[in-house]
Specification:
Four copies of one chain form a homotetramer. In chain A, a hairpin with a 5-residue loop joins strand 9 and strand 10. In chain A, the strands form three sheets. Chain A has a seven-stranded mixed beta sheet, sandwiched between helices. In chain A, strands 9-10-13-12 form a four-stranded antiparallel beta sheet. A two-stranded parallel sheet of chain A has the order 1-11. In chain A, helix 1 packs across helix 11 and helix 12 packs parallel to helix 14. Chain A is built from 14 helices and 13 strands. Chain A is 41% helix and 18% strand. By secondary structure, the first copy, chain A, is α/β, with parallel strands linked by helices. Chains in contact: A-B, A-C, A-D, B-C, B-D, C-D.
Chain lengths: 341, 341, 341, 341
């Protein structure tokens, strides 16, 4: 079987496992007070070019989004996000469970536009009854988006500008950040992100770790009292060093970037094989998720040999499907799949 | 250095690590839909003698408590617990963050008495204004308690009786359950717990796993719609199999019990060395946590060679300290410590 | 000045005030345990043809919506409502503050369609990942809607059917119910509503009371433990009799219906005057809110003599405006306005 | 029947009713934007000697406490209060429902001591694991307390000092403030309260209004964005002027003070009659609530003619009872009762 179903089907990158094994019987204090966590934070600060940044490690994505959003908003505020945003669609109401509304904006292949944010805020405060409505208190974006697409540096700058003007923070969900940083043609580096987003997280779960997400705020004042909030959200790992060791490994010898590049290269190879065959790419993603329309027969045939996901309901003749590569995808599997195709 | 500081200073039992390594590159579907998780659930159902039980795997203790309590209570209800209960003291308000009050009861070395629960409930409903107060909606106990003590089978039966009469669930926090099941002289088995507690969890984090807690409800109707609630609480691990593999290992070849026995045996050895020297045991714990009063000089001297925790503020001449053993504590370290003493 | 701005600009119907004065110095027990409240509940049960119904009096609309929705939903559920629903737009996030998401449906002049509800629910449970999403746990409608429109009996039956099939409750926000019941041509009676909606409220604030909303559930089992929840939501009035006296008066001698008829008759007179002049009615409302497009000059001229509300942003040449009548609107004022026009 | 049961058994002071009647058919805009509300705020600012103070009108006490506390705390913080505090005991978990823990302190006839607050905070931050616990984020006091007792000016200054040092706000629940300000021998004026408490509320419900509480913050920066929070908590009255008119009346011609004096004078008369008869006053209250031990026979006999409340469970021979006077209590009733005694 060939696996293109999701990017969290395997364990961790062998190097991560090696380090976990190697350190397994060491004794360290808990909750992130260990030297591995300290070192991992330093490596991330360095990678971001932000020596003063606050770095916090949490376990999973939904948890991270809920904790950060809860930390950034006041009670009467909501979070602006694309209709298709993970926080709006696929987190079982985790954001609302903390008391906050997700305020939706139109999406363009999963992205939002600075002008829509601006218009929302302008219209909001122009309305005489705005105090009866949920105030836009922050902006949430994902990069790559749920559709694999990426913001350009210019788009991020525009979003940053709009947020500066409105005096609200910009937050980036980087669950798949590694695949975004490694995309061909992207002009956005992790340093740019650390400059332009008040808070963002570097996804580990989908990019080589067993689990774990690293929250970064260039200005630590953005996340005051974050530790007790992490605890309150049930997001504090007792053996915090497990997160430290993993992120230390990911940010040593450029591993995070290399894994991203590997997955993206294979995704591009898959994409090319689809376009070469004349199939329609329905979202043009430069990252590790590829979205293509295939004839239903072909889907049935391929499904015998390869795992991938139907994207929405099955069509009459053809259907949308998603193929995902990751750090663990092998060139052999991709070649075998292209062969099949 | 000799380590008796906490029971979460190391990674996981080598067998757990071996299995994680062995399966690392396998491809499985996410969120606990994998065969390892399926198998782990079966093994736990078997150990509990409850073939129909609902079993859910979560990541950490505070998270598990908050999710289960939120699931069991209606909005106007609170949870009865000892004043010293972890949920009342050391979870940064995680229970209140879900909207529920912790209703405190007197504690006796960390335990509560069925008669106090009964009195609370009787007094509550006898008060004309009870609808203006938070209704006792469930009972929380920990076993071992935060002080290492254990309920007897009879005490559990009494608590169960009181809860049956009041028609409210009894929930056990088993963060250190393995050390309780293995205690000398305990007459409480995991089957008894599954019989007498509506919901309980089997702690992994402190007993041999990297992380993970297994929630068990003999009657699955007690936890309807628990999956989306787990997700909403940010407690759903994407790579659910990591929990499955770990608990599968813990419940294979009696490993969970063996680790408990190992730690308890060494704790008893420590305890004996204290009493032999004439030091006062201030809480008589039959499990892996030992509480002893030591002269301050002795504390200072021992601290050079061994890690342990001051329990409360430092006294004038002597102070209370806690020593903790776990699955990873070695006989050599214990012997070396006794030597020191 | 002529007042058509909102329906909550005056105090209460003179008969309500007379009764409040008359009883002012009487001594009664608090929190709704008084005989006026008892009697008011009986009168409402009678009007609804539901002798067993639970009736609860709360103070205001947002409070009532938040309390009822919190009572009806489980933690993982959200409430289906029109995009334009008051709970989605104008309650400062009161629903989300209780932890629940508002799941939006398309609106048709403020109404939702049973088929859209059905499709939402069907699609939801057809999605493999539905447990990662917020489950539709109830349906919210307003009648009259925020745009003055009304459901037909048949539409309510269809909504009821869909909810029965899905086993979720149907809740009606009746903030302006009096104006809906009195509309010409409506085939929906309060008895129909009590039959078809699991829970609904009879608005007092906008229909003759100083304040107050009466929550009705034909089957009291739908709202178990509602009293402490009302208290918890800060919605319990100490001097509960103030609500009892007001609703007793509203449901004596058909006053509630008469006030509705008065306001609707005058609204229809206004509407006719607009259409007679050739102005475009942009939402065809049979109730006390009227929506018309007027040339900007005319708006400016009329504004000197009459209060009414711009509905949305000002247009280039003409703009949408809303005129509202209520129980306190006088025939003289309406005539004077028609004269002006 | 003679009524000493509670202080919310009647409607409103006749002057309040007269003003409500007089203005009943006037047209004003909603939500507190009317001139009566404006004027009432000015009168309260004047009474408090704080021309810049923020003043907000809410409907009831529990609602006010929940809204203010939610506004003042950050997510990881709780509120320090006496064990017997209304927010801890009699609000159906309204504070916890907003996500915050009530942190209890010892009570002395309903009051707390500054030294206990100081010790709590000092001990809290001295604990290495304080970030795993709920941080004390504000102090709640009631004045008069639930037991009718009052803080002295010096005690308030001490509490203020402790709060200043800890940089947390001091909040006073003044549900019965009028009876406190009018107590014989009190050295605390409303100006002192406005000086020493960051936020407090002036109770209307129990002191002459139909309903209503006035929240005051000398420094309006203490309650930023309070309006949407009031709305979100369901505490915003559509016909806001009802609150404005009531408080305007209460703060005109010294009515609020006069009502307090009236009730307190009669309460003292009752108290004297008890002590003259040799009955034991078990809480020495200088305000409108009086607490006395009476023989059970006497309780039974008196209950035929007068309403008062058993305070706690019935004793064997004698029991504790509470007598309450208010603005509506008549000298005749008090005399008649003394006669009975």
């Amino acid at each position: 079987m060939l696996y293109f179903y999701t990017d969290y089907m395997e364990g961790a990158h062998p190097e991560v496992m090696r380090r976990l094994m190697e350190t397994n019987m060491e004794h360290t204090t808990g909750y992130g007070s260990d030297p591995y966590t300290y070192n991992a934070k330093q490596l991330i600060r360095e990678a971001c070019g932000k020596p003063e940044a606050a770095v916090h490690f949490l376990v999973g994505g939904t948890q991270t989004n809920a904790t950060v959003i809860d930390a950034l908003l006041r009670q009467h505020e909501g979070v602006l996000a694309a209709e298709t945003a993970h926080i709006n669609v696929h987190e079982s109401g985790a954001i609302e469970a903390t008391g906050h509304k997700v305020l939706t904006l139109p999406e363009y292949s999963g992205k939002i536009k600075a002008e829509d944010v601006k218009r929302y805020i302008t219209d909001f405060y122009r309305d005489d009854t705005y105090e009866h409505m949920v105030a836009p208190g922050m902006v949430y974006i994902s990069h790559p988006t749920e559709y694999g697409t990426l913001y350009t540096l210019n788009e991020l700058k525009e979003l940053n500008n709009v947020c500066r003007e409105a005096n609200i923070p910009l937050y980036m969900d980087g669950a798949r950040l590694g695949y975004g940083l490694a995309a061909e043609g992207t002009d956005v580096s992790i340093k740019d992100i650390a400059d332009l987003c008040d808070v963002f997280y570097i996804g580990g779960t989908k990019v080589g770790a067993l689990f774990g997400e690293a929250v970064v705020a260039a200005n630590p004042q953005r996340l005051p009292h974050f530790f007790p909030l992490v605890k309150q959200h049930g997001a504090l790992l007792a053996k915090g060093r497990l997160l430290g060791i993993q992120f230390e490994t990911l940010f040593t010898d450029n591993l995070y970037q290399k894994m991203g590049e590997h997955a993206v290269r294979l995704a591009m190879k898959l994409k090319k094989s689809f376009t070469d065959k004349g199939y329609k790419i329905f979202i043009d993603s430069p990252t590790n998720q590829q979205f293509v329309c295939l004839p239903n027969d072909e889907i049935d045939r391929l499904s015998q040999y390869a795992g991938f996901e139907l994207w929405g309901p099955k069509g009459k003749k053809e259907s949308k499907v998603r193929f995902v590569t990751n750090w663990a995808t092998t060139e052999e599997d991709v070649n075998a799949f292209i062969e099949l195709l």
